[in-house]
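Inputs:
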Amino acid sequence: MPKITILPLERVIEADDGSTIMEAAHEDGLYWPTTCGGEGICTSCACTIEKGEANLEPMGRGELKTLAEELSETAVRARRLRLACQARVHGDVTVTRRGVRPAEVSLLTPE
Ligand code: FES
């Protein structure tokens, strides 16, 4: 089962082979930033692939198009960015995405 290490949270989660990074995070009870709900159109979920890029399915045209609307295609590749809602894992990866946290912790929850 592929393992995803999420930084800076320093959490290691297991993913079903072929699931997206975001699906695996949700399965593990984590909140992952999104504004489109995982439709691949907002870039809020974008993360940097620190290790294991070859263990992800190659970036599809739609994912690259969405990311390239924010940055140039060259910058997307140079910064090793992927959309967590689109990138499917087939082996261990390490990613960085600030804002990922346990879902039950909410700044909006009254005390
Ligand atoms: S959640 Fe919107 S692009 Fe991934």
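The radius of gyration is 13 Å. Flag for discussion at group meeting.
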